[in-house]
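Letters spell out the chain; backbone shape is given numerically. Both lines appear below:
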Amino acid sequence: MNGQNFYCARFYVTYRCNSRCSYCNVWQNPAFKNVPELSAEDACLLVKQCREHGVRYIDFTGGEPTLYPHLAEVIEYAKKLGIKTEVTSNCIASASKRKMLEVAFAADKFNTSLDTLNSAAYRQIRGIDACENVKKTVAEIASVRAPKIMTVVTDGNINELDNMISYAQRHHALIYLSPMFPYMDKGGTYRISAYISDIVNRIFDAYTVVLLHFMEFFRTSSPSQLPPCSANRHTLTFAPDGSLVLPCYHAVSENVAWNKDLNAALDSAAFRRSALSSGTLETCRGCCVIPYFGISFNYQLNKYFLLQSFSEKLYHLKRDCLNPLLDILHPDRKHLLQELETMQEVVRSLACPPDMEAYRRNGASLYPVEKTPEGFATPLYKQPLPPEVYDRESRAADCWQLTLVPHHYFDKVCNGIFRPIASALSESGAEANSPAVGLLRDSMEFAVRWWRFYTATYFRLSRPYDTTLDSVWLSAFLRRMETLEYPDAARIAAEGKGYLPAADEKAKVA
């Protein structure tokens, strides 16, 4: 196990909390009381050892993580090692607002958990009266950096969703929308799907973050389903005392002491046993805990990853180019949602062999491959991969590093075209009807159509999809792109046309 590389760690730096959320177990479970917390020196040592095992992202969590007095120092140390850091806080700051703000400004990602703007509703959800205090803290953070608001959509706040989005937009804050999953919903009633359409319908709004792969997982989940869990295979979980939490925080049954030696903890029989049984235990059935199953989507090329890559790239497009400009650009959101629904249907029809789940648990690569006289055949791609192409793709550590995926070319368009246009528009303005502004206005539709076209053209589908209209639209978009006076516009447009061999002829006919 010493040689294994992990992707991320969830470090519960403290189990203490200054909130009393009705759906959370951390303040109610006696097992989480009076757990010792690491000194700054020891916490940094643990972070260093995590990096030595490949960890490149740490989610510092709790409890209320900002109650841990050394958090800002540990975050700064992690960043020096090249580790991306994330913190989610209730922003109550009952102990020290200065300490909390230090953390907020140090972390790569700082999230504020806020489900309502109504003080009475907040008190009912959180068990304390702190809504106005939290809103003041969000305003302070927003004056220095753009915060990210985490909103769990429930029966109690579904009618407040538009107000929450408007609040985030006023503070130029991203707002991540998620349904309440069964771990939180103590009724265990699997009512998740009731909120999915309300959430997805906000995906093209300014500053919203909607992750379609999670929505798809929730949409199809059942109480008997085993999740694609990453616990102890790609994700490590640490208690405040540095011990490894097994099998995960949400179903903890044992801890492996750290003793300042992560190698020894990872070599323990208990950890090895837990890594082998990840996601297969009876207690795992029906699990919808995002931090654990979400990482797994990086390591298998399937519908979930394609929806994940679309969601992440749309989020980046909005964050880096569109959010402040959407009121000027006025994209047709109703039309976009109609196109999005068709795109999701195409991605859902991605062919998947019946033994893919077993392969995922035991396989080392991102998809099954069989060597044939024609090349390397897969159950996913329509055509066998030439040896040199398969050799390149097989070196990818995760699906994000693949090139035979829609996000590979989209990144080039986003970096070489959309970002320069948005930057120029923000700095000096531009005519509403200029070609560049027109491309930016259509950028979200380009994303939807590109994912749909690429999936239907290059992947095996269980249901056919006619790409003619997408080919015509994309070809016209690329011709508009190549006329721009940007250094890479013609080259990027020409590369895009290589994916659309018949698009120009179809466009002429149209």
In short: The chain has a mean pLDDT of 90. The chain has two domains: 8-295, 300-509. The radius of gyration is 24 Å. The domain at 8-295 is CATH 3.20.20.70 (TIM Barrel).
